[in-house]
User: What shape does this take?
Amino acid sequence: MSRTMHLALFAQGVGVAQSVWRSPRTRPDRMHGLDHWKSVATTAERGFFDALFVADALNLSPAIATDATDRPDPVAVLSALAAVTEKIGLIGTSSTTYNDPFTVARQFATLDHLSSGRAGWNVVTTAIPAAAENYGSSRLPDHEDRYARGEEFVDVVKALWDGWDADAIVADRESGRWTDGQKIHRIGHKGRFFDVAGPLTIPRSPQGQIPLAQAGSSPTGMKLGARVADLVFTTQHDMSEALGFTNRMRELSAAAGRRSHAVKVLPGITPIIGETDAAARDLAIELGSLIDEQTTLRFLEQSFGDIDLNRYDLDEPFPDLRNSLPSNAGVSRPTLFTEIALRDGLTVRQLAQRIGLSIGHRTLIGSADTVADDMQKWFDSGAADGFIVLPADLPVGLEDFVNEVVPRLQRRGVLRKHYAGHSLRDHIDES
Assistant: This one.
């Protein structure tokens, strides 16, 4: 069976480009309402995306003065979208650092029932110090402790999902028997971070085990993804490095006792599309002109554990901060951003400008043919099983992609022309 490309949409407000709400291509007055989310979701469904993905943040960004970085609750948004979509998967972020396994297991099991088997959970650990202050702590846990808690958290959630057998509901009207009690199980978990009795208060979800997504690219994060994830979202800018990452995920997956290709690796791309390459470059310049420099610097600072970048000369080369990060900072993003800056000789200001259009992911600027060519090149090389698409602006940027790039990929035989199944797991397992 030939491979086909997997696509997931990263849906954030009116797009990921910073301050893009100022563009006439967006309608920021609609971004909190269901009509906006429905438009985005149904457009992605028309493009036969595997899933729509809603990220989360547990603190209000300091960039809120100029950037529309407000974040609704993903589970609430996706629950509403379950009623207005038919096939597209619905993946939401929920942190293992500031949640409880029982709550997360019940929320996503409920979403899976509401959507007839289309739910997915994006497993993250929280690496932003300001989030700790919103959850009664003055200090963010260290990187290794966050992942140790995250590992146990996932195991508890999966055990809770397995606590109901598929045939636990009897529903015998004559006898009045609703369930077979022998097929509903306590999990009796007692661990380092959690004691959870179970069982869950809702039956086994339509997919059995709900698919998991994960985005950690540090060695610790990759091991977690290889053990539990069905999709791994990653940030890669170089095809050879992306191929190395994907091959390493294959090795780790096999080492964890899974099939080597059990995990689908989806690098992030921000496509900016024009009728010609020149028109696309003009659009990128137009969107980039809206970015506020200090806003982007604050985004970078959060990624680096709140290191103050304004203490450096903005027009001097970006400093190598990899060995001076706070112990509670993330690892993969600061490493990636530093490597980009060092490789391309970027100043602090130039790195901020580059990150501003795509929150750090690779920008694909060009005609629909140029974008499709690039995506197919990465896909055919094995560097990617598909892509997570982060439109710079919504909904127009997504419409451009679905109307122009998707048909080209379909004609080349690398993207589905219809959904073969109904559930998110069906889409993931299709090839």
